[in-house]
Amino acid sequence: xxxxxxxxxxxxxxxxxxxxxxxxxxxxxxxxxxxxxxxxxxxxxxxxxxxxxxxxxxxxxxxxxxxxxxxxxxxxxxxxxxxxxxxxxxxxxxxxxxxxxxxxxxxxxxxxxxxxxxxxxxxxxxxxxxxxxxxxxxxxxxxxxxxxxxxxxxxxxxxxxxxxxxxxxxxxxxxxxxxxxxxxxxxxxxxxxxxxxxxxxxxxxxxxxxxxxxxxxxxxxxxx
Length: 224
Fold this sequence. Notes:
Elements: H1 2-21, H2 24-45, H3 53-72, H4 82-90, H5 93-123, H6 130-155, H7 161-189, H8 197-223
């Protein structure tokens, strides 16, 4: 266990070092977020269109989904070719997938926070319970990262990985989106935390289940 944790820590540090050294990917994702929010502003606020709370909430999660998908879609591209076999001889597959999930969860959380701040600034902020909404936002970022990381690993083995990730990701993410929209709508309305208890517990359970499935299945994908 200690050896596994050490491998995970080293791999996460490697991911952060590479990202900080070449920040083009992160800058591109942030630019994508800003551009999408700005298009929403031009479409609604500048046209003096009143945005209903349900529309505001749904549009926000759609933006988050596509932004996080673009951020995670190519997370296994660095492991292609000779580097893949180099990692194969150094670390365990469990350490590799866990490090990818942890790093992508961290990256997705930053993207979600920045996106929420920009979206609230440009499109106003109708959220009454900001604490609950932030907690749901964190669960959503972690849920997206755990699910899409495994899917990205599967898609990386195919020739057309982007299309395959879209096909595999939609049925997995759709139930999660429905739970996130419902829980965040309760936060917007200022309802008690107990009203969102079922959704929050389900989201936490899904996150743990996906992580467990990733640990169990990725070694077979690793050897293929």
